[in-house]
Amino acid sequence: MTAPDPTRACPNCGAALPTMLAYSRMVNCDFCGSSVVLEDDVLRRAGEAGEMQDAPELVAIGQPVTLATHGTFTATGHVRYDYGRGHWDEYHGALSNGDIVWVSVDEGDIVLQHHLSDRPRKGRAAFRLGAEVTVNGVTYACSEVDNAVAVAFRGQLPEEIVLGETHLFANFTGPRGAILSGEIWDGGVAWYAGHWIDPFDVERLTG
Q1: Contact call for residues 77 and 154 (beta carbons, < 8 A)
Q2: What is the per-residue pLDDT for 181?
Q3: What pTM value is reported for the model?
Q4: Which of 59, 65, 156, 198 has the fewest CB atoms within 10 Å, i.e. the most exposed one?
């Protein structure tokens, strides 16, 4: 966890916010539970941070974990999405080599992904079962499409998350454990590429 920053106060309660990381645009206030967004060096209250139900977590903010051959990952932000039948967790943070990544955890399934700055050209047309998308010479087939709602977040994130907003998600399966994910919401679209990780290759570091 980062130390409080006396130069930045929560616009709702006035408490000092954590020192924001270079990539962060959204942070939650530990004192009043507000979500705060940084826009052009101005802090704006964006609502509540939501209620994160306590549950055993393999990944947790500020606690390093090893991710197979990818090195150590330390989460600085956590978002929870509800898709009706259950929920999954998205953790944002850095690997030990400095790479900024997302780690998704869904009922024991774990995925490590990087944000793609170059989006696939198919756009929304790709969000249907069986559709194929090629990224960086790798072809993926759509294996899952669903809607989900962001219900809570903690820590710091590189983008604003609007709680209660519905996102259309799609997962695409590639060769040798590769996975491509896309999401669309009002006013935005994002794509991520990465690999599945065996949960037995994930270990929380202690001491």
Answers
A1: yes
A2: 95
A3: 0.84
A4: 198
